[in-house]
Amino acid sequence: MNYEKVEKLIKLAKENDVKKFKFKDFDSEIELDFTEDNGYQQPLNNIQQHSGDMKSNNDSVKNKTESQYQEIKSPMVGTFFLQDEKELTNPVIEVGDEINKGDIIGYIEAMKVMNEITSDVSGVVEEILVQHGTNVEYNQVIVNVK
Q1: How are the residues of the chain apportioned to helix, strand and coil, as percentages rounded to the nearest 5?
Q2: Which of the two ends of the chain, N or C, has the fewest CB atoms closer than 10 A to its terminal CB?
Q3: Poorest-confidence range of 46-55, 86-95, 97-106?
């Protein structure tokens, strides 16, 4: 993505009063966020060039909490559940629970199959960002661990 196109995109977003915008393809990713301060945050700092492997770039540039929290992200698109049943009676994790790498933190139903979601980090569950029975996108942050 060249800077002329980025400048045009920023100008177009501002002219149409767009507060947040995210674009991602195989070569590049851009995220604009004009919701803080006066809206002129130098969005060019939010540009990342990918080196071909999308898995190597799971960090969100504008994420303020990345130094405070470790994130557990959704590995697929589907419906997130905190237990293996649709009625929430006994969630696998709750805020304040200590989890280890490899522990099951929930399930994502995709194509009528319940897939176990395991933690790739260890620590204490600080926030569960997705409610039981909510749809999630690929790479969406589900849980913050401290």
Answers
A1: 15, 35, 50
A2: C
A3: 46-55
